Amino acid sequence: MSHLRSRSRSMRQIAAGVLCLAGVLSAHAGQLQLPVPRVTIYPGQVIVKGMLAERAFRSGSVDEASATSSSDALIGKVARQTLLPGRPINQGAIREPHAVTQGQAALIIFQSGALTITGSAIALQSGGTGDVVSVRNVDSGRIIKGTIGADGAVHVGGP
Questions:
Q1: pLDDT tens track for 47-56
Q2: How many Å separate Cα 10 from the centre of its chain?
Q3: How far, in Å, CA of 156 to CA of 159, rounded?
Q4: What is the 3-state secondary structure of 104-156?
Q5: Are 79 and 65 within 8 A, CB to CB?
Q6: What one-character-per-residue DSSP string does 13-34 give?
Q7: Are 156 and 133 a contacting pair, CB within 8 Å?
């Protein structure tokens, strides 16, 4: 008889544990983990890992389509606007770092077939890879438009 009582007690403890676990799981259901700033991040600041934390949000309380869902997607990016602590980060609030900075020297490259001509220029605009920017050739003074390549050089002309 005592064997049946202890077995019954064990079953109740298991059932209570399962119910407790189910309550925890249902509390987490409908939640979304998003990276948020730990500190205020100002426009132009590069985002580093120490600036970010994870925070749970209720589903529906955040625009999931525009919120950045991964810390890895934020690290190394630059803030376009002030990012406040504890708030989700909108994808439009960040950008890639500039490969070419206004007022700084830039390498210009012209390629056509086997012909490659390089020169120096001063960037008249800042931009990232793939952006079209204006630069002033330091030798001729002419203003040229070109596309910033993955190598950080401004590629002009050519097919």
A1: 999 999 999 9
A2: 50
A3: 10
A4: CEEEEEEEECCEEEEEEEEECCCECCCCEEEEEECCCCCEEEEEECCCCCEEE
A5: no
A6: HHHHHHHHHHHHHHHHTTEEEE
A7: no
**pTM for this model (two decimals):** 0.63
Determine how many CB atoms are found less than 10 A away from the CB of residue 113. 7
Q: For domain 30-95, give the fold.
A: Type Iii Antifreeze Protein Isoform Hplc 12 (3.90.1210)
Q: What is the CATH number of domain 105-156?
A: 2.30.30.760
Token pair, residue 103, equals 């007022």
DSSP 76: T
pLDDT at 148 over 80: yes
DSSP code, position 51: G
